[in-house]
Write a structure and sequence with these properties.
Strand content: 15-25%
GO cellular component, one term: plasma membrane
Membrane topology: Multi-pass membrane protein
Oligomer: single chain
CATH architecture of the largest domain: 2-Layer Sandwich
Structural class: alpha+beta
InterPro entries: 2C_sensor_his_kinase, HAMP_dom, HATPase_C_sf, HATPase_dom, His_kinase_dom, HisK_dim/P_dom, HisK_dim/P_sf, Sensor-like_sf
GO molecular function: ATP binding; phosphoprotein phosphatase activity; phosphorelay sensor kinase activity
CATH class of the largest domain: Alpha Beta
CATH topology of the largest domain: Beta-Lactamase
Number of strands: 13
Protein name: Signal transduction histidine-protein kinase/phosphatase MprB
Shape: rod-shaped
Radius of gyration: 53 Å
Order of helices and strands: HHHHEEHHEEEEHHHEHHEEHEEHHEEH
Helix content: 55-70%
Number of helices: 15
Distance between the termini: 64 Å
């Protein structure tokens, strides 16, 4: 089964991100517009329907108040054909209402729902009104003496929507009939046009949002794609090409962190290559010496020259010892050693390091001048002593016979500074930048790991190791954070 490359999968992920962003922009907006539009339309329609029903029923009530129930009931089938006076008077009244109000139809019915007069509907006297079967509930309320309007709109023969308002016709306190007024729901034309306009505006808004979403997705995808390319380059081993900065705040933070990671990997890779090259170089010389003197030893033993064999064995042992020191220094520099911090006094650190080198200093004719002001430290005593021993040892080896190596410790700028000063030839300016690089040394038997290891230990303690050098005056300054002084307490008392 073939696996797709990382770049293809990442590009698919970016494409999926763009699609999700587009969906995240459009789906909520579409749902909101649909719900909001439908809700507004339904509310507007219901409100307008109620208003129309109230107006029609009020008009029906006003008309019913002008109709004599007794006379209306005297109208019989055929009166519309013969045109009796009572029928004509009622037609005249209802037609006046129809003309004045602009409604489509006004009719009067008896309590059984039979037509007594129909203006606009043209049903004959005595006929049943079909709409009353639909509005039975409303008619029941009317016969109980209340006004009512049809609950639903109905479509007329002209294709328009209509609604009917009803009011009772009362004679001597008794409902003897009803007036029905049909009016057109003319407001639905503008309402429908408003709905269409809303739908079109929503469509335009969705298109605009889709465009914004696409542009936003591309704006996010481009820097992410650049970060992806940088990550792929780093994954393939290209640690020299910097990660370009990004203007977007969040992605810019990712870019900066990726650049920091790349720089750390590049530095670590460079140190690893230097260490490997340094180890190969340093190991080659003693191995060559061991091979040479072991060959001479073999020849002397074959020739029976046992007197020289001892000197060859001594040389071999010295070379083996040097090899062991290279391996130990390499391991000490390469591995991460956890710090076992504990309270300690700064003068104890300085004096213990100088005591370890007092014999070597005396053998070289160099005097150690030690002066350390009191201060409280919290450090790994053994590691920090090893770092300071390395500095003092370098100073002793560089100092001319009869001179002094001054070791001074004092509080400085909120920290504790230890200066190791010698009057040797100094460090050339061309070598000062490289003196803390692993395996860089100017000594024939030096591993070049002493100063890098010392700086590593000091930095692990939150301090720094610096160099200031001129011919006749070289100073290594080891700076450490110190604890605030506790009145009346010493490290022993705190323990």
């Amino acid at each position: 089964m073939k696996h797709r490359p990382h770049s293809s999968r990442l590009r698919d992920a970016l494409g999926s991100l763009s699609a999700r962003l587009l969906l995240a922009f459009l789906l909520p907006t579409l749902l909101f517009l649909a719900l909001a539009g439908a809700s507004v339309y339904a509310l507007a329609r219901a409100s307008l329907e109620d208003e129309l029903g109230a107006s029609l029923s009020a008009l029906a009530a006003a008309t019913a108040s002008q109709v004599s129930g007794e006379r209306m009931l005297t109208i019989e089938p055929g009166d519309d054909v013969s045109g009796t006076r009572t029928w004509r008077n009622l037609v005249r009244l209802l037609d006046g209402v129809r003309t004045a109000s602009g409604v489509r139809r006004v009719y009067a019915v008896d309590a059984k729902g039979r037509v007594r007069t129909d203006v606009g509907g043209n049903l004959p006297v005595g006929a049943e009104v079909p709409e009353l079967a639909r509005d039975r509930l409303e008619l029941t309320r009317v016969l109980a003496g209340k006004r009512a309007a049809s609950q639903v709109l109905f479509t007329g023969s002209d294709g328009l929507l209509y609604k009917t308002g009803y009011a009772p016709v009362v004679q001597d306190g008794q409902v003897v009939g009803a007036i029905g007024v049909e009016g057109s729901a003319a407001f639905f034309g503008p309402l429908r046009r408003l709905w269409r306009t809303f739908v079109m505006a929503s469509g335009v808004a969705l298109v605009a949002l889709a465009l914004i979403a696409v542009l936003t997705a591309r704006g996010l995808a481009r820097p992410l794609r650049r970060l992806m390319d940088s990550a792929l380059r780093i994954g393939r081993g290209d640690l020299t090409t910097p990660v370009p900065p990004e203007p977007t705040r969040e992605i810019g933070v990712l870019a900066r962190e990726l650049e920091v990671m790349r720089g750390a990997l590049e530095s670590r890779d460079r140190q690893l290559k230097l260490m490997l090259a340094g180890v190969a170089h340093e190991v080659r010389n003693p191995l060559g010496g061991i091979a040479l003197f072991s060959g001479l030893l073999q020849e002397d033993l074959r020739a029976g020259a046992h007197a020289d064999a001892g000197s060859h064995v001594d040389r071999i042992q010295r070379e083996v010892t040097y090899l062991q020191r290279i391996v130990e220094d390499f391991l000490a520099f390469a591995r991460e050693q956890p710090l076992a911090r504990s309270p300690m006094e700064a003068p104890d650190l300085v004096s213990s390091a100088c005591e370890l080198l007092s014999m070597e200093a005396s053998a070289r004719g160099v005097t150690l001048d030690v002066d350390a002001a009191p201060a409280h430290l919290e450090a790994d005593g053994s590691l920090l002593t090893a770092a300071l021993v390395n500095l003092v040892k370098n100073a002793v080896q560089a100092a001319p016979p009869g001179s002094r190596v001054r070791v001074r410790g004092q509080p400085r700028d909120g920290a504790y500074a230890i200066d190791v000063q010698d009057s040797g030839p100094g460090v050339p300016e061309s070598e000062r930048e490289r003196i803390f690089e692993p395996f860089f040394t100017t000594r024939e038997q030096g591993t070049g790991l002493g100063l890098p290891l010392a700086r590593k230990i000091v930095r692990a303690h939150g301090g720094e190791l610096a160099l200031r050098s001129t011919p006749g005056d070289t100073v290594f300054t080891l700076t450490l954070p110190c604890l605030p002084a506790a009145s009346g307490q010493t490290p022993q008392a705190r323990r």
